[in-house]
# Entry
Amino acid sequence: MASPHSPASATFGARIRDARLRLGLSQIQVWQISGIHFTNIGKIERGEANPALHTIIRLADAVQVDPGELITGLTAADLPEDDRARVLPENVREEAIRRRGH
# Structure
């Protein structure tokens, strides 16, 4: 079994799975509702995939939750190390905001 891409992927996937199970739906039923193949749903639920925005919205609709609930509380700290390195340090971010304001 592949490991989760990141804590963010694992958290998102667990939230999808929990919502699906609360409704008593199988992955195949979510596939039939959302059009997202059940193998992809399984990968997402295990945190092995990073779904695109449209996929997030379709899954949220299928499991009857607001898409925002699926990502609430996730931050850059939940991303893989290589993605976190791209986050600007606070002093660089402040300088960019200051320059944009002039």
About this structure: The chain has a mean pLDDT of 89. The CA atoms of residues 3 and 68 lie 25 Å apart. DSSP finds seven helices and no strands in the chain. The helical segments are 7-22, 27-34, 38-45, 53-62, 67-71, 81-84, 90-100.
